[in-house]
């Protein structure tokens, strides 16, 4: 292999070392590789320089931006500041500053009376912060709720505010000036939801009503919703939540005859409202620590009745789920029976008087004394209250210790008393003739020697009381039932009286949607859980609409609805009954009965029929 030392004819590649590269001719591939590497190396160095310059420029810009951000943070923000709008806008305000600005703007638009009332309320809130007083349910209040149930709640107007009057615990009448009235007890927190309603019985157009909840203490010369902590639904269709200046549009305005409901969920602290049984959106959340009191306010004459649960609600869900503030009746045991004498002050004093030698003025031959007749108290199953001895001076009493349960005295008791305490000087007993025997009237049945005082007031041997017939109850026309279903919204249905159940009679009345039987109630028969026919079709009850009867004196209305609501495909039952069936289809029979008893349409129609 020969070697040549002559220069290459191709152009000399760029060399940064200042000399010309000499390579062999046979190593052409190697020389090309070196040429390419040299060219790539030169271009890479230039790119690195450009990249370094760009990074320096961007780094400087980023550093300047960071410095500006730090300066802005320390210049325009403070610790704990809350922005109400987007960042980057100068002049941002937090809650307190925004309220001060809104207050200044509102005060500039108020007249002197409004300004004075607002400043008075502001001073009251500053002097009496919300929840500054003990408002938890005390032991005595808890026992009152157990004893009275929902009747323990009532509205108590402030004595200093004479602009409203409360009658019957929950009926509120407002006069000319603005004021509010709170309940005596707060809303409990044990259940999932608590609910109450207020019906507007009388409201002029110029009167503004506010219905909601407030904490204590609260300036009751202002309406709920205006100050902390309170939320309210206003009759103008707005809502207020701690807002004395600008209300928020919320729902439809309510007028005379409307029913406004207030609901509270203690676990989430949510407050919501309803109007005429329709739920509106939630007003507030997170109010879990405060004790809220039902509050109603107005700035003019009006009349409002509040339902804490003592009656059925217009809001059906609250009825079905029993969202009232407490049960309708108390849960404490009833007082001891009248036969219980243990712990009686009168009896204890009587024993002491007898032991001290005090006698009784007893009429011989009769079991009655001049003042009273008692017997020693026997131990009963109902202990009754325990009382300490008393020094009350009592009249002279005759004492009878008998094992028989005598009432006002019998001949046996009188004889025993005469034998135990014979008449004699110094004992105060005076012999006297027995009173004449009572004579029965001629038409009275003979007593047959039985003590009249022992006879029951109603003898089981007497005949059954007369039960009114069908004609006496509803008249000679079945049109009364037709009128009833027409008022329920049912169309093209009428009732006919059946004399017999022969097929020919039924064919003449075709089509027949149902038959209602009228049975005489067996008053003298013992009650039994077994049906009289001994059979019950459970499958049929599951495949048809049936509502259990939970109210009295409504069997006729229940029977009508049982027929009509199972013939929806053949009979036009109207939109309200159709809505009722759709709402209760998934309920068991007992809940259907509860919803039926609280349906305003069915209740009004039934009551009007009962009065006719």
Question: How is the secondary structure organized here?
Answer:
Layout: H1 28-76, H2 95-109, H3 112-127, H4 139-148, E1 155-156, E2 164-167, E3 171-174, E4 179-183, E5 194-202, E6 209-214, E7 230-234, E8 238-241, E9 248-249, E10 259-265, E11 270-275, E12 278-284, E13 293-298, E14 302-307, H5 316-320, H6 345-355, E15 373-375, E16 398-400, H7 411-420, H8 470-474, H9 479-487, H10 503-508, H11 538-542, H12 555-564, H13 575-584, H14 589-597, H15 600-611
Parallel strand pairs: 15-16
Antiparallel strand pairs: 1-4, 2-3, 3-14, 4-13, 5-10, 5-14, 6-7, 6-13, 7-8, 8-9, 10-11, 11-12
Family: Belongs to the peptidase C12 family.
GO molecular function: cysteine-type deubiquitinase activity
GO cellular component, one term: vacuolar membrane
